[in-house]
Amino acid sequence: MNTAFMKHLLMAVALTGMAASLPAMARPDDITENPQIEAFKKLDVNKDGVLSVKEAGKDSLFNTTHFAKADLNKSGTLDQQEYMDYKSAEQNKEVERIADDSVITASIKAAILKEEGFKGLQISVETHRGVVLLSGFVDAQAQVSTAERLAKETTGVISVKNSLIVKR
Question: In terms of DSSP H, where are the helices of the chain?
Fold first, then answer.
């Protein structure tokens, strides 16, 4: 397997693991309170221990749809546990998405570097939510097509925007 690909893959896995373990690494005297508890308390303006739709709406995550999903007991309010559980789950999804995008990017770069006749460093690969952007310069039109094909063949890719330019 390509060494550059393995380095990118290992880095993505390491960063994901580090992000997940940071709270566990902090010492109790370093933390005044859980940031989610603090956020909940700030949103609970009437201090009744629950969040109304209006109060929760001050958090950009909690639009009406998300509020309804978070309100597991269908009480019309969110208690602290419902708020924290839903917020944590959504944050975890975002971390997974970022890790997935990093793996897609690394996989495409590795495939391009392995391809005969490519100078892989002239091609930039960016991924956001499975959408890949290829940019940079190549020597021939065939390389534009090959890079796009390699990207489209990569697991997890939803679509490819190919902005590669043939040098003249």
Answer: 3-25, 35-43, 53-56, 64-70, 80-114, 141-152
pLDDT tens digits along 39-82: 899 999 999 999 999 999 999 888 888 999 999 999 999 999 99
Whole-angstrom CA distances from 40 to 56, 62, 127, 129, 140 are 8, 12, 33, 29, 56
Structural domain range at position 15: 3-95
Mean pLDDT of the chain: 83
- The total domain count for the chain is 2
15, 76: one domain: yes
**pLDDT of amino acid 21:** 47
Query: Is 109 part of any domain?
Result: no
Do residues 136 and 123 make contact, with C-beta atoms less than 8 angstroms apart? yes
